[in-house]
Amino acid sequence: MSSLNEPRWLDQDEMAAWRGFVVASNLLNRRLERQLKEDSGLSHQQYEILVHLSAAPAGSLRMTELADKLVTSKSGLTYQVTQLERMGLVGRRSCPSDVRGVFAELTDQGRETLRQAAPGHVALVRELLIDVLTREQLAVLAEGLGEVSARLRLDDTP
Amino acid sequence: MSSLNEPRWLDQDEMAAWRGFVVASNLLNRRLERQLKEDSGLSHQQYEILVHLSAAPAGSLRMTELADKLVTSKSGLTYQVTQLERMGLVGRRSCPSDVRGVFAELTDQGRETLRQAAPGHVALVRELLIDVLTREQLAVLAEGLGEVSARLRLDDTP
DNA sequence: ACACCTTCGTTCGAATTTGAACAACAGGAG
DNA sequence: CTCCTGTTGTTCAAATTCGAACGAAGGTGT
Questions:
Q1: In A, which residues are within 8 Å of B21 by CB distance?
Q2: From A119, A139, A145, residue closest to B13, measured CB to CB
Q3: Over the stretch B134-147, which tens digit does the pLDDT of each residue have?
Q4: Beta pairing partners, B106
Q5: Helices and strands, number each (H, E), in chain B
Q6: Interface subset of A 58-117, CB within 8 angstroms of B
Q7: What is the pLDDT of residues B105-153, one digit of tens each?
């Protein structure tokens, strides 16, 4: 069993990594949120919905599948898809093989909005994160956080 | 000037790093949130407020200073400090040198709550992030994201 | 066919977050 | 001192988020 006495606190390096991760994450989200809202009237979450739909085979995904990709709650997704539906960027279609199923589907206007929003967003991601790091740092980040994500996905749905 | 035609999209490696960052961030927050709420009745934000106050000289910090450390809005902090005040974990004191100023101050009960919540939280951070990565990966993460954070802090308040 | 357990998406209420507007004050230039 | 500009923390309305509960189906074993 593990030690029941003193927990293993984070040393200086570990703490630096953890704080860096949290702070960078918060600052980045804040910045991207502002830029997207001002530039395209979209929240970061809404933008990501459009991206995932755009990347999907028929521009459409099942609600649950989309919620997984976005790492959000089902109810949260229902809300956001409704918002995007009102904006005319996304539509809902029922699934042929499963009456309960619902497809979120990118509309032409949704595609156009994404096409217009993407350059500015990507440019900022580049400026704030990608271009700040070296190729090696990026590789380590991708591999490390990829592994972290993979493990988190596993015991989240046992 | 920069190219006005095609934006520089993210290549495969860059995209992997960016997606890894976003996904890991979301999954981690989700997990930590759940654990803290179940284990100690605190949100991650509230926990972090206690941590920062605990680390401060007199267990107290100015509201604005605290908001900066937390990377949150002033109004958001006002709300959360009020919540913590109702729980008896934090108190407010006015600043001697500045009538407008307000100190958020950790109470004894707040210290005790933090002491009780910390081990479980740190253990989970360790399990989900720190211990998943090698020493080298942690170093790269700390340095890279530290730099990213530093730059973000700069042109955020020009 | 039947009961049983899981999955799907939505609805609901409560909690949280944000930006803008605000009032009160600080700090300096003149 | 007086005006001007920037800060400080709060309030407010609106938007978002989450988890729990729900109704409706799917899928399985008997």
A1: 25, 129, 141, 145
A2: A139
A3: 999 999 999 999 99
A4: B90
A5: 6, 3
A6: 70-72
A7: 999 999 999 999 999 999 999 999 999 999 999 999 999 999 999 999 9
